[in-house]
Amino acid sequence: MGADKKAGPKKPAASGRVPLLLVAWAVVIGLVGGAVLWGHIAAPEPESVEVIEAVRLALEPAPALMEEQRPPAEPAAPPVVAAAPAPAPMPPPSPPAETARPAQLPAEPPPAATPPPPPEPPRTAAPEAPRPPEPPKPAALQVAPAPAAVPAPPPTPAAVPPTPPPAPPAQTAAVMPRPTVREAAQPPWLRYSRPFDANDRRPRVAVIISELGLSSAATTAAIQTTPADISLAFSPYADSLDHWIGLARAAGHEVLLNLPMEPINFPANDPGPRALLTSLSAQQNLERLDWVLGRVQGYVGVTNHMGSRFTTMPEVVKPVLSAINDRGLMFVDSRASTRSIAGKLASDLGLPRAINDRQIDQEASRPAIDARLVEIERIARETGTAVAMAQPYPVSLERLREWLPTLETKGLVLAPITAVANRQADR
Fold first, then answer.
1. In a domain, 158, yes or no
2. Residue range of the domain that includes 213
3. Which of 30, 197, 260, 264 is the most buried (most CB within 10 A)?
4. Mean pLDDT along residues 316-341
5. Residue 144 included in any domain
6. Which is higher by pLDDT, 152 or 29?
7. Quick one: pLDDT at residue 185?
8. Whether residue 81 is found in the same domain as residue 178
9. Is 215 part of a structural domain of the chain?
10. Residue 183 pLDDT level (bands cut at 50, 70, 90)
């Protein structure tokens, strides 16, 4: 009976421990499982892993106690006992203290997860800061090409010299070559003359197209569409006189200047502001002559424009012819009047001269021009020399282009005006 009494109080004590251990075991298992699951998710630090391992080792004796209370028929007890036999002496109060640490584990990862976002904004802001300075770099690049483009033009002027513009003057020199020493000795009417075969015995025909330079189209046509043996006379009032005379000489033409003189119906018919007038003194007329002759160079002589009154008065025309002779020029009497004495005075002064025989376009029509050209042929055969003058009318140039090629078959030769100097009789 005494033994029964002692055993009685042990049973209730044993039965009270089992539920407590089971509850503690369940709580620990839940905490450990949660910690393990959190470790897989949040990747706990090594310290958390050690805590979990310590908790597991601390709780391993609990299954041993349960195994003592459980009947031997239960299959689950043996595997738990075999898992951890050695750590049985560990005290059970340690689990609650260590369970508190796993509770802190979930709090530690959030701060670890929060810091990564803050550093990212500064990284994004850092690349944006260098972008503003980038505009100056292209600006500098744009400034750099500007000076680089400036040195480019110098090569172009360097390439200009190879293409010599003075080639045309070289051609004119080839047409009428004059050595430098001889140029100083020769008068201009010979220096700027066109070469001609003096041994040619055929009758010579000289043609002068007068009053050029006032119409660009007419002047260009006269220079470019007539043979080089045609002589060209330019008005002193023409613009770009140097240009036109340069073109004419480059094409091989001999050049003269028109010398405006007073006509018989002056002032109704005005020869221009620099014309030689019978009402002026000899000195005044010579000053006007100097203005005309000083307009340009490269001409062989002058021919009077109008002058039907001036050329009939010896006292006014003689000083002018003397000045022309002193300059080494040639004079062509256009015969504005049949009473002109300019040709005879020129012969008396020793001035090289020629005399116009026909103004072919006094009536500017094809039949009238052709009739005058026939007269020129007759005069050339009879006297050996004939001089024709024309205006730069389209019809005049057209009839001359048709007529000039026929001279060769008619036994006549076209000659520049200097080639007929002093070959005509005085009138």
1. no
2. 174-420
3. 260
4. 97
5. no
6. 29
7. 81
8. no
9. yes
10. low
Mean pLDDT throughout 252-258? 98
The Cα angle at residue 172 between residues 171 and 173, in degrees rounded to 5: 90
Same domain, 89 and 218: no
387 compared with 13, residue with greater pLDDT: 387
The residue out of 60, 94, 113 marking a domain boundary is: 113
Point out which residues pair with 388 in neighbouring strands. 207, 358
| pTM tops 0.70 | no
Task: Examine the fold and report which residue of 97, 113, 129 is the final residue of a domain before the chain moves on.
Answer: 113
pLDDT for 27: 74
What CATH number is attached to the domain comprising 210? 3.20.20.370
Above 80 in pLDDT, residue 372?
A: yes
Q: Are residues 252 and 395 in the same domain?
A: yes
Q: 212 and 357 in one domain?
A: yes
- The number of domains in the chain is 2
* Mean pLDDT (the chain, rounded): 76
Task: Let me know the angle formed at the C-alpha of 378 by 376 and 381, rounded to the nearest 5 degrees.
Answer: 110
In a domain, 66, yes or no: yes
- Give residue-wise pLDDT tens across range 98-108: 444 444 444 44
